[in-house]
Structures are given as structure tokens and as C-alpha cells.
């Protein structure tokens, strides 16, 4: 039986685990706010081999997203590692299948944010976040970054931007999410949850 509690969809793609850990921290921030839940979902990898088929359920981590997860969410947190300054292909592939939601205005006035991880400090964190918000704006979503009232933005020595949470994974993608990066993920999750509840109420009053 499905819960009637509103939820934030935390949708991500992760290869080395850093983006998945950020997603979990984002979910922790969301679920620290009363009255809303986090729903963790991922996307299958894409393959140049036409015969390659992903299992219906991944061996570990979050289950694969379905369109209804996105259709019925109250907010969206979108996470991806950087690929040449842009989101990874598997996440873009899923977003390219959301035309039916766009045609029906299913995501209009719902808040959204993005988060990312890179191997190098100047490896495209900000361009990735900015390009990830483009399809969200086409869907009519309300983008929520991280304000400078979050003091970790001023003291971080690695990831963290006003455009969204980010992480420096290192050349071998084995650097853990540090305290400040984690704090910014949690803070962004909290902000998104609060906005989701407020905009839910606004949409109800408009009906």
C-alpha cells in the first residue's frame, strides 16, 4: 500500500559510489523535516551494445526509477557525476523519456535541485549543475540552489557551490565525502523539503 506522505525523489546515477553517498546525505536532510519523505532511485547504465540488457532490479543500491516516481513526487533532487562538464548519459537518457510529463505539466511549480561529483577540483562541477537544471526549467520546475547563509559554502576546501552540492572525488575517485560537503548535501535536502511542503500547499490552494 502506497503512503500518502509527500516525497522528494532523489534520483541519481553513480559509478564509483560518491554520487550515491551524496544522495543518501541529501535524503537524510529531507527526512529531517517532518511531513515529507525521501525516495531514492537510480537509473540503469546505457550500453553501445544493442543486446545488452540491465536486470530489472540492480544488485545493490536504490531501485531503478519509473516515470510515476517522477510524476507523483513533490520535489526532485537530481544527481550525477560529471562527464565533460555535463551530466552522465544514463541520467540524460532517462530525462529524454519524460516528454509525456512535460506535455501534461506534471512537474510545473515543483522545486528541484542538482548535485554532482568530479575527479578534479576544476573538473566541471558548476557547468554540470547548470546544464542539469536546463531540462528541469523546461518542465517548469522551480530551481533551488544553496544560499550563502550556509556557512560551509564559505569555508569548504573541496566541493560546494551556490548552484548545488558537489564533491571532489579525487583522481582515483576514492576520496570520501568530507564534513563540509556532507553538511551542504544535508542543507540542500532540508531546503528542498521545506520548499516542497510550501509549494504543495500553494498548489492545493490554487485548486
Automatic annotation (TrEMBL):
Any GO MF annotation of the entry: FMN binding
Entry keyword Flavoprotein: yes
Pfam families named in the record: FMN_red
GO CC aspect terms: membrane
The keyword Transmembrane belongs to this UniProt entry's keyword annotation: no
Ranges for domain Flavodoxin-like: 8-193
InterPro entries reported for this sequence: Flavodoxin/NO_synth (IPR008254), Flavoprotein-like_sf (IPR029039), Flavoprotein_WrbA-like (IPR010089), FMN_Rdtase-like_dom (IPR005025)
Domain of life: Bacteria
Keyword annotations: Flavoprotein, FMN
Family: Belongs to the WrbA family.
The name this protein goes by in its record: NAD(P)H:quinone oxidoreductase
Organism expressing this protein natively: Vreelandella nanhaiensis
